[in-house]
């Protein structure tokens, strides 16, 4: 990436001594921003060493908010990943497996919540601010906010929750208990949390999530050794679980080992780059590392140390080229147990540089012999303890690997352990004898859920059923909760897990349901029988016709014509006796613009003309059996010659009528209908004749019954004569 010269150029040093104080402060701010921008550009070009120096220089001018170092974090992460060969872990496949397993924590899907993307997570994973994006599709996950008993955000999915409780009552109960524990910890009610933890530890000492909570509790009481021990076990079982690294990093950070925690935060981010709290932590640490220490600490710093640094910096080292050629690599003796000993880290190198910059300002000597740098506070572990911790291999004891004690007869059936050890560790196979079609029924159509969509209140309906409800009112048909926001987002994503469960456990019912659906679609796609009719205005072949669709029945009609793929419907004017006229014109949908409340502006263009054979109704809108109209072709040479002559005369007449219109009218017509179409080479080439005739008919200010009669003519000659009569009438008036 090229860096604009203007940003790389060294700024002239201002003579700050002569400037007024206010000016000086502002100047420093501007200078800092320029440096930060330069740092970003250097980081993006992978010139990390220079970037770090530039950031440090900026931070010497004043503090910046940690988020400002986002670009640096991304660059470091990229470098770290490339060097370690870590690809971000995306959960395999496009959909959620049929197992009731949370893609966030890999645990049992207790109290499932379906996010707007259609993927379902356990309540715990959405409560904490740990997951910001869906691990399947990277879409942003809604936050669960539970303030003062008021629950906003997505609620527990009613259907899925029923299934988890019915199929796995013990796990479900347990998940709820752990959820409560999580909530207590979240709210800081540690005493109660400790009591519950102890209780569960007795009954189920091997539960991984329990270990996670126990670690949190222990860390809260500064029992870091115990916390790390638990998290090591968790990580040995779930080596691809970003949250595990995040939690361990947190504990290490709390214990004062910022350096090691940084490594683990990066590991977490390498597995899930959207892990927002880890990103924040890294930014904060970098900010601290690069910032100068307060004035009082700085005392005693000697000038020579700065010049010494200058010398080191002037050595030809190419940190920017980083990945292929990491320079100044040091065998890392201080890596913790998760990371292979002696491996070389590009990031380490960069950070060593950063630290070297900071070294200047650090009063305490970094504890090199320990291989650990005490950056913030005093470590809260003795070096002996710490050594023991970090040396501890993530040995997976037999005990650790025992599956969670299954206490129901059903859980014994499945639980494949081999293979995908990462995230499906705790998954179970669904007990077949407990599968009941009625659990998968849509309460609107009383049929098997088809393309099930779960809305924020937790209720699930077939997508089509839900959309029809929303045509009428933006609220849940069951609990009446407002869906205004949901409707505006227009994201009716199918609940993947439910669809998967239906596909897997009710294949026959599903194929039957699909057959019914396909028959319906085929019926709706028929373009001669039961064709939907919009009763509104005159439409003509080739002439654009924009429509504002707001009535529920027409919302449904337009949506169906999109779903079936025909993208067509008939347009007729109303008729007092017959509901709608005998003749009409098909409209082709070119584009739809949806408004926030479900109304839409539909851009259509006229297609074939038709005659109504029979009038019918479907779901509130009119339909008709129709036959299409086509002009009778003139074959006789002489007659055709005469027709061509007539055509040319009427065309010139039309042109002069249009030219003689008052400017105001002319520009209105041009705005609504566009300019008049050109004459065509062969006047009989299309079944509807020359396009300009339809354009003219549309813009002439005549009664729509008159227009309708011209529309229904299947002789071009007759149509031209009719148009000529109208033009003659209007031209006479024009000349008056
Ligand atoms: Zn989860
Ligand atoms: Zn998703
Ligand atoms: Zn339904
Ligand atoms: Zn509801």
What does this structure look like?
Residues 1-19, 296-350, 353-382 and 390-426 have low confidence and may be disordered. The strands form five sheets. The chain has a five-stranded mixed β-barrel with strand order 7-9-12-13-14. Among the domains are: 438-518, Herpes Virus-1 (2-Layer Sandwich); 527-628, LON domain-like (Archaeosine Trna-guanine Transglycosylase, Chain: A, domain 4), CATH 2.30.130; 637-735. It is built from 28 helices and 14 strands. It is of the alpha+beta class and 736 residues long. The longest helix has 24 residues, at 21-44. The chain binds zinc ion (4 copies). One zinc ion binds next to β2 and α5.
Helix content: 40-55%
Number of helices: 28
Span between termini = 71 Å
Q: Identify the bound ligands.
A: zinc ion
How much β-strand is present in the residues?
Answer: 5-15%
Q: Could you name the CATH class of the domain at 527-628?
A: Mainly Beta
Mean pLDDT, to the nearest integer, reads: 78
- The count of DSSP E runs of length 2 or more, i.e. the number of strands, is 14
- Class by helix and strand content? alpha+beta
Q: pLDDT under 50 segments (min length 5)?
A: 1-19, 296-350, 353-382, 390-426
CATH superfamily of the domain at 527-628, please? Answer: LON domain-like
CATH architecture of the domain at 527-628: Roll
**Sheet of most strands:** 5 strands, mixed, barrel
Q: What is the CATH T-level topology of the domain at 527-628?
A: Archaeosine Trna-guanine Transglycosylase, Chain: A, domain 4
How are the strands ordered across the major sheet? 7-9-12-13-14
Shape estimate: elongated
Radius of gyration, in Å, reads 36 Å
